[in-house]
Amino acid sequence: MIRIGVVEDDPNNRRGLLNHLAMYSEEHGTEFAITEFTDGAELVERYRPEYDLLLLDVQMPRMDGLEAAHRVREVDSDVIIIFVTNMAQYAIKGYEVDALSYLVKPVPYFAFAQEMGRSLARLQRQQGDSVVLTVGGTLARVPTTDIVYVESVKHRITVHTLSGKYSFSGTLKAMEQELEGRDFFRSNSCYIVNLRHVTRVEQHTCVMTNGEELQVSRPRRRAFLEALTDFVGGKPAR
User: Fold this and answer.
1) Do both 198 and 90 map to the same domain?
2) Which of 44, 78, 98, 195 could form a disulfide with 231 if both were Cys (CB 3.0 to 4.6 A apart)?
3) Total domains, the chain
C-alpha cells in the first residue's frame, strides 16, 4: 500500500490527479491510500511523516507548495515530493527541498505515469531496509522507516509502526541488536525509539510523531540527545 498525499486547491486539477492515480493503479496493480488536501496550510497543519509520496501544487492561496515543502522537510526527510505547476520555472526551487521532479499542468497521463514509475522505484530503494518479525507463526516484513518505537513488557515485545502493532515473545536486547546501525536508540529499559520519528525532547521524555511520550531515563538522556543530534546532522546513531 503506497500512501499518497494530493495537495491541490483547484477541484478540477485535483480530480485529474485522482483519475490518473486510479488509472495507474489499475494498469500496474499498485494499491494507493490517498489523502486529499486543498491547500499547503492544511497539509502542514495535519502533517505526520506517514506518507510515501506528495503530489504538491505550487501556487495555492494560503500557503504555496514551496513553503509547505520546506515545513514538511523539517519533520520528514524521506517523503518523495513531486511538484505540480503551470509555471516550470518554479520547479527549479524544488531542489531546495529535495523534490524528485515536477509535472506541468495540464498533466498528461503519459508524463504522470513516467514520474510515478520513477517515484515508486525510488521508494522501493528507500524501503529496502526492513526487519522480518515472527508473529503468531507467520512472518511479517516491516520497513524500519515505518517503526516508531519498540516496547518491552514482561518478555513481550510490541513493535509500534505507522500502520499498526506487532506483538510477540522476545527480548529488547535481541531487538536492539537487530536494529543496530539503523538510527534507533534505547531510551530506557522498556523502549527502543526510531530517531527519525522523534519530534521533540522534554525533560524526561521524547515525543514521537504519533503523539506518544516515551520515557528517557536519566542515565541515558545525554547519550540519547547526542544520538539524536548526530542523526539530524546525518551521522548514524550510536
Assistant:
1) no
2) 195
3) 2
Q: What is the CATH number of the domain that holds 223?
A: 2.40.50.1020
Q: Please state at what angle helix 11-28 crosses helix 109-126, rounded to 10 degrees.
A: 60
Q: Is the pLDDT of residue 238 over 60?
A: no
18: CATH: 3.40.50.2300
Is 166's pLDDT higher than 70?
yes
Cα 112 to Cα 23, 59, 74: the distances in Å are 11, 19, 27
Residue 76: band (very low, low, confident or very high) from pLDDT cuts 50, 70, 90: confident
Among 183, 192, 186, CA closest to 234: 183
Provide the whole-model pTM.
0.58
Phi/psi at 216 (nearest 5 deg)? -115, 115
Q: For 145-149, what is the mean pLDDT? A: 92
User: Residue 50 is placed in which grid cell?
Assistant: 506517514
Query: 149 and 194 in contact (C-beta within 8 Å)?
Result: yes
